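dumping these here so i dont lose them again. two proteins, back to back, each one seq then structure tokens. dont judge the mess
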Amino acid sequence: MTSLTLRLAAPLACAAALLAAAAPASAAERITTIPSPGPGPAASDVVTLLKQGPASADKVLVLMPGTSAGASYFKPVVDALLPKLPGWQVWSVDRRENTLKDTSVLKRAQEGKATGQELFDSYLGWIGKSDGPAHFTPAEAPYAKDWGMRVAVEDLRRVVKEARKGGRRVVLGGHSLGGTIATAYATWDFAGRAGAKDLSGLVYIDGGSGGRAPVTTAAARTQVAEIAGKPFLDLVGLNLPWAAGVFNAVGSTLALEEPDAPSILQAWPLLPKDLKPPVTATNLASYGYALDVDTGPDSLALVQAHLGSLATSGDPRGFVEGGLGTVTRIAGVFSGLPGMDGSSWYHPRRLSLDGSAVNNGRATPAQKVLGLRTTRGRDVKVPIYAFSTSLGRQRVLDGAKALAKQSGVPSRSVTLVDRTRTYAHIDPLSASPATNDFVRTVVPFLRKVR
């Protein structure tokens, strides 16, 4: 057996076992999979769904996560939505790249069967001391260079077809890059038929397409060549593409499972200084400090929210809740469910590159280079909802308005919610249900679906 095979065997076997053993937490919440052939290991030829709500529902909201995110990060906001939406199910999509994760020790920690120290030692504590456990897929995994928009849309097509069975209405939504994927699906040319024909609405949560100049043909060719040798996004610059997702999975789980204990991550010499509180803090406070918009670094804008601040006293220092949500809520967003955390450890760079060429479904030369069929931007004749935060800003709203205008969607069928001054990127998912402006405004939109 080759070295590459040995390195792949553990995570893929673990992923397959977890998917096969997945059981519903309740009758209204379950994890299922849909077979979806594609490039790469056979164990990755699935789309995993977190289904919430009654199976008898006649409407389904399908939600696509963003960059470096997983399906379960929608769970807290979906828990707030469903009581207000009788007759609805919500299916949150875990893309195929999440089959590469080995969450076995994380799952044990989430279930209270492993300590926080064991969790940290397994995934991070070995760095700088050894070659590490066989938890991680090699950074050069060759098949991932092809995990772009075409593969994501084909996977999503199988989800939408499943959701439409029995005549159910389907609304497609996405957060961040997930919104771009939703636009790609809606504007995709499926043998002369726009993907939007399958849908009864679109929901953009600080994401979408349009509002920016599309990638050029030359830039697309250059990046495709670069991605061939380095297919995964490396957010922390350590040539460890899994690191950002693992940091978040470990930090969020420590915050939930051992909130009042001294922060294990803060005491780690290799944790970047801008993530460390200025005083000794608890696991919960340390996590809150890193992800709060006022104290976390700009480099974490993709995962930030309004949470509160460090307590003024205590040893270790705790956290004072005072934002739109709480540290416990945002930790729940990213820790997720046992065996299904809210982060993606391996984000395909090709997916982000292709997203920059979707162009709201208007044809460009770069689309041909990338093999995209996002050309039916005038055929998206469905109601549109868009919510913008301080990250997506006006371009999210402009993109939604442009899509509606070019398709002739009347203004009465377009809902635009501007929270660029008050909401950060994760706030729509983590804000407390009673005061969550996303929940408050998307519910009336969805209730109109017929």
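---- next one ----
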Amino acid sequence: MPDENLLATLENGLRQSRATRSRLGARLADLEAEAERVRTELNEMDAIISQTEAAMFRIMSSMFGAAQSATPPSDAEIEFALRRDAAANVPRVTPPSSPSHLPYQQNKSSSHEHHFRHHIPQIRSDIEPKSDRFFERTIPYAAAVLLREAGGPLHVNELYNRLLEGGFQFTGQNPTISIAVSLNRNGRFRKVAPGTFDLTIRDAAQAS
């Protein structure tokens, strides 16, 4: 009878649909398990990268003295550290076309250069943490917050002062060099004068 034939056809289609759904569900479960394994591996690689960068910063800092000095590194020493870091061919965050990869002499911004070249803030010795907002944060994260708050470029000495006020904990003997190297590697920042950095996005917005 027509109704029985139609019912049989529908039952067959239902069985096929359920079988297909079962296969898709199993495949989805496999993909989710694989995604979780990849996330775990990514987290492990992030930890390795952070540990390696911290070790490199400590080694670079030790190259400028075996003991903590009362005199912070000069702009010339910071520039020397940046050149050594660039010569080591360490992969950077941004592609080679980013303005942060151009040598300082090739940057087209001259207004920042003359304003900041001779102004080197002093590192204060009486700094007490006013908060813990930068505790266990990375240098790029904290520096981006400070530069947005400042509304303009800051020298690494001033960044160091403000990072300490925010509860940031440094390792190594020359934290200002660590700040400079970290920001110079990151495409979110660009060097506008020796030892002085600004946000790349802010420069792009001002140029438009």
